[in-house]
Amino acid sequence: MKSKKSYFKNSVFSSSWMIYLSATLIIGLLLRLTYVNDMEYKEDEEYNFIQTQLIGITQPWPWYGMPSGVYLANPGMSIWVFAILAKLFGITQPTSLAHAVQLFSVFGMSLILPFVWKFIQEKKEKITWLWAFLLAMVNPFLVLYQRKLWPEPFLPFFSMLTLMGWWKKNHWQGALTWGLIGALIGQVHMSGFFFALALVLWTLFFDSDQNKTHWKFWWMGSFLGTLPLIPWFKFLFQNPIDQPLSRGWEEMIQLKYWTFWLTDPTGLHLGNPLGLLRGNSNWDQISDFIRYPLIQGHPSFLVGLAHLTTLLSVLFILQSAVIQLWANRKQTASLLIGKSSKTAFVQSSAFWGCGILLTLTGINIRRYYLTVTFPLEFIFLIRMANPEKKLGKILLTLLFFSELFISANFVSYIHINGGSIQGDYGKAYYLSK
Predict the structure, then answer these.
(1) CA distance 131 to 136
(2) Taking Cα atoms as reference points, which of 121, 151, 137 lies closest to residue 20?
(3) Is the peptide bond before 75 cis (omega within 30 degrees of 0)?
(4) 367: how many CB neighbours lie within 10 A of its CB?
(5) Where are the domains of the chain?
(6) pLDDT of residue 70
C-alpha cells in the first residue's frame, strides 16, 4: 500500500501543483474583489440589487425576473440567487452584494478541484481540468462578468454540479443530481436550457454506456427541478411579447457561438466593454486600452504586447491541433462525438450540441451566454494544446501570464478612468450613485 506522501508525490496534487492552484486561487480572488466601488452599475445591476431589498418586505417571492436579451422574461431563479445571498448575509449595499456574488463565482469555479480529486481517473485528464481552473481564474471575460451583478457568475456552480451528476449517471444519486440541476440551470440563465438539453440529447444518441444510466431518477430530478417553472409559464401565457425572438438566417450564418467559443478562453478581446463607442473596428475598440500601463504618463503598450502574445500562442496551438486532426482523419467521426473519454464527450456535447441548438434558434447570441458551458471552452483549448508535451505546457503558461496581465490591467484601467465611458461598461458605481 502506498504511503500518503508517495501518493501526493506521484499524483497531480503534488506540492508544486498545490502551490500553483493556491496562488492562482488568491490571484483570482484579488482580480474579482479589488476595487469593488468600480463595478458596473447600470439598469440590470440596479434591478437585481433592488429586488433583494424588496423581496419578503414589500414584495412577494417573484416567479419571473427581468426581460432577457431577447425580450422574454427570465425565470424567477435569476432573481432568487441574488435574494438568497442577500438574505443569508444580511446584505443592504450593492457593493456587499457584489462581493458575495464574486466569492460565490470563485467557489463555483473551484468545484473543479474536488471534481478532479473524486471523479477523474486518468492523470492526463486531471491535468487538463486543473489547467482549465488556472486559465479560468485569470481569464479577462470571466473577470469582467464576475464583477457584475448578473446571473452569469452563478452559472459555473450549476454547470459543475450538472457535470458531476452526469459523470455518476450510472448511480441513482448522480442521475437525480443531473436531472435536478439540469432543470434548474436554465432558470438561472436561459442559456442553461440549451446546455442541459444538449447533454441529454448527446447522451441519448452517442453514449454507448447510456443503457446503464438511471433514467428513472434523472426523470425524477428533472420533474422536481421543473416545478418552479410552472408560474413562469403561466406568466408568459398571460403576457405574450410583441417582438420576434429570432432574427432568422441573419444570425445563424454568423456562427457567433463558435467564434465566442474559440476566443473566450483566450480573452480576445475586451473591446465591447472598453470601447464600443470608439468605433466598429477591433482596433478602434481597444486602441486606448492597449496603451496601458502608463509609465509616468507615457504609454508602454505592454497590454498590446500581451494581446499579441496571446494571439501567437493560440495560433501555434491551432496549428498543432490541425496537424493532429489530419493525422487522425480516419477517426474524425469518433473525435467529433468525443468517444475517447468522458471529458471529450461532454466537451463535444457543449461545442456541437449546445452550439447547434442555440444557433438554430436564430436569436442574437451574446458572448456571456457561453458562461454556462464552464469550463468546457477552456477544456477544448487545453486539449488542443496537449499540456503533457513541453511545447503545449509552454504555450499554456504564456497564455496564463498574458491573460493575467490583461485582466490585472483591465481592473486597473477601470479604476484609473472611473469606468469606460466610451464603452459598454459605462461609469463606475461610485460615479453613478
Answers:
(1) 8
(2) 137
(3) no
(4) 17
(5) 35-432
(6) 62
